[in-house]
Amino acid sequence: MPALTDSLKNEYTKQILRATGVRKASLQQRKTPHYRMPLLEEAGGWMRLKKYDGPDIDPSEWESLTYTTYSSDPTTFFAPISSATGEIELKGFWEYGKADIEGVWTPNAEKCPSIVKWVESIGARFGRVQLLRMKANTMRECRWGLHLDNNNQGNAESNGWVVRVWLELTDDASSSLVVRPTEFDRKGEVRIELPKYQQAVVDSEFLWHGGHHASDHMRYAVIASVESGPALERWIESQRV
Prior knowledge:
18% of the residues lie in helices and 24% in strands. By secondary structure, the protein is an alpha+beta fold. It is globular, with a radius of gyration of 17 Å. The termini are far apart.
């Protein structure tokens, strides 16, 4: 189909495109035998934890990294701190026959030791760890881009369900993660506020989600794929508000 102009990229146009089959969702919610954490399911698929209270993280740990992006979103860049191969790339782990819990540190990891230590402190198996660099967007753009993450392709059903853990690095009152139980459920929409050092855990293959940031300065955050299981549950319990 011809590219839509920016003014037509809203959730109402998206609903029409879905209904007509012109633009199908790339992923659907699904139930599998993977272990899912009861505490996260009971919370609706997301939990806002207490703020990170470790040593202050110097901005050089995110400003000096090597970033790349997807052609579909030129306003958002990612610096892979871990990947499937240890290379600075955004390819899915399944493309290498791996699950998104088998992360290998990239050269970026050497530049952000505090962030690496935070990831390792969770104590669970992790896959991709990425530093998000995001320009300002509108709520219309955010809702147009609501999506599910493909966290569990290639993940054996004997493993835990892969979820995302979030650490916000910059401070802005507008920064949030918008989540919905279904793609067009405006009434069920929740905005998870993300001030500096806010931690959160989200089942991003269950909840439709997107980042919102309305500010002049760049937004930075760490997003890590982590395996559901006793180790992650213990960490979550230790980080409850």
